[in-house]
Amino acid sequence: MLTVKHLAKSYDGEKKSLTDVSFSVQPGEVTVIIGPSGAGKTTILRSINQLIRDDDGEILFDNTDIRQLNRAQLRQARCRIGMIFQNYNLIEPLTAIENVLHGCLGTKSNLAGIFSIYRNREKEEALKLLEKVGLAEFAYQQCRNLSGGQKQRVGIARALMQQPKIILCDEPIASLDPKSTITVMDILRDLATNDGISVLINLHQVDIARSYADHVIGINNGQVVFDDRIQALSDTAIASIYQKDANSEGSVVHEF
Amino acid sequence: MIKPENQISIPTRQPAGPRLSIPLRFRDRRRVTILMTLIVLAYITLATLPTMIPSHFKLGTALTSFAENIKIMFWQPHLANTTFITLLGALGQSILLAFLTTLIGSVLAFFFALASTRRLAPTYLVLGIQSLMAVIRAIPTVLWVLIYSVVFGLGANAAVVGITFHSVAYLTKVYADSMDELSPGIIETMQAMGLKKSAIIRQAIIPYMMPSYLSWTFIRFEINFADAIAVGAAAGAGGIGYQLFMSSSFYFNFHEVGVMVYMILAFALVLEIISYRLRTATN
Questions:
Q1: Among the partner residues A75, A89, A158, nearest to B194 by beta-carbon distance
Q2: CB 3.0 to 4.6 Å from B195: which of A52, A203, B8, B190, for a disulfide?
Q3: Contacts with A, B 204-243, CB within 8 Å
Q4: Is the CB of B193 inside 8 Å of chain A's CB atoms?
């Protein structure tokens, strides 16, 4: 499904943010990336849809290397990669259904984008997805009036509108209260199990990873230090993922 | 370990001797420069003020005749050389001049702003367009109208082009600024979904900037209305400004000037009400 091989990235050409990161993601599974702040989790996720241009390696999505695509091809590939964010990144002045419909604009013409022309089939699909995330009655609400948990669910519906093969989640629950966290994680879990979508999540919370993940990738200082099924994630493994590397130049927080 | 030269250094200044009180900020050169400039300006103002007043000037007489003129304008407004209908037509002309220049200006400025916002455009375009617009803005509207009157001759054509020119520069700046305020994450999100640039502009940027687009355009309409009046007098562009010029400088009829000032005030009041409604509706 998605295979990342020997990925490397350095932002300033000197300090390495990622060194030789390799892992793969299976369809129908929730894969969670955990690791300390500044370890490179976000860099990995953003390299997959090339929001960040990495320096070296291979990212095989459906057997094509995403890194080799030209601009038009990359845009097409991105249409099938959903992404949700910590701060939702919805277009807040627009309604929930308008935001969800943005998910299918990637495959439509310039004119459709400019004049917001959608087929009835697409509108029905958008309403169905809002119903799926439990927001059917909020379809015509402006997104700025929704709560954090509701916004994130609109974000998920928007990603699903792309008919994605994989959904990338960058700290999807970091700004949510415990109840919304469970709602959102339940939806993501369901997408993997019942719709066969690969779900790749950056997380800070190890306990959430324990209850929802199939597979865990531990990152420390830009390197993969753990890559196994969730059952193998022992306390010692967690300690080694989160250990402070004495030679770390990558960590953001310095102790004085 | 982080190398010492890579550490973020907080600029510190060693106090020269024992400090009696804890300062809230470092004494920096900028503040001293500003203070010195203000002192110099204050001195120049005080020194030159007496030389500006002519020797035969009598404050008492001047104040009484000023009050007399104000009284004629605002308490005894009536028409002599023109009709009310003519003046209404002239006011309409000025309003239409303001409307036309704002309309053309805002459409052109929208595209210039797209080409010069940091969110979409490369740095060289941002810097290039913004500095060109800054130069255009630095020259007052009336001057632009006079410059264009060399090409078009004194009249309405020069006024339309000149006011539009300055409006484009002004609106490009404020539109681009409001686009810059948009979080980069929003545009990144749209790109991550594979949206084309046209769709990103229409679906993400326009919804966010619409309120500020409306209120800035309206403010520019008010400015253009004032400019249209001034230009009518200064560049013979017609409208209520020209009528004002004729009454005040040609016929010396302050009764008539009063009528026109009341008409302009009435329209300004209408504008203010509309802009208030607009602001409360979009927020």
A1: A75
A2: B190
A3: 204, 207-208, 210
A4: yes
Using a CB–CB cutoff of 8 Å, tell me whether A81 touches chain B. Answer: yes
φ and ψ at residue A89, rounded to 5 degrees: 50, 45
pLDDT at B3: 55
Last residue of a domain, one of A145, A163, A181: A163
Whole-angstrom distance, CA of residue B12 vs CA of residue A245: 31
The yes-or-no verdict on residue B7 having pLDDT over 60 is no
Return the number of other C-beta atoms located less than 10 Å from residue B98's C-beta.
25
Which of the listed residues A118, A140, A163 is the one where a domain comes to its end?
A163
Closest Cα in chain A to B186? A89
CATH number of the domain at A212, please.
3.40.50.300
| Topology (CATH) of B81-282 | MetI-like fold (1.10.3720)
Which tens digits make up the pLDDT trace of B17-36?
566 677 777 777 888 899 99
pLDDT above 50 (res B223):
yes
Residue B279 has what pLDDT? 77
């939702």: which residue's tokens?
A88
Total structural domains in chain A?
2
Residues A64 and A88 in one domain: no
DSSP letters for A132-148: HTT-GGGTTSBGGGS-H
Using a CB–CB cutoff of 8 Å, tell me whether B189 touches chain A. Answer: yes
A211 in contact with chain B, both atoms CB, cutoff 8 A: no
Neighbours of B207 (CB within 10 A): 15
Q: Which domain holds residue A90?
A: 81-163
Average pLDDT, stretch A31-38? 93
Residues B129-170 have pLDDT tens digits of 999 999 999 999 999 999 999 998 888 889 999 999 999 999
Gap from B202 CA to chain A (nearest CA, Å):
5
Query: Averaged over A109-137, what is the pLDDT?
Result: 95
What is the DSSP secondary-structure string of B140-156?
-HHHHHHHHHHHH-TTH
Judged by a CB distance cut-off of 8 A, whether residue B4 touches chain A is no
State the pLDDT at residue B154: 84
Q: How far is A89 from chain B (nearest CA, A)?
A: 5
Are residue A145 and residue A89 in the same domain, yes or no?
Answer: yes
Residue of chain A with shortest Cα separation from B209: A93
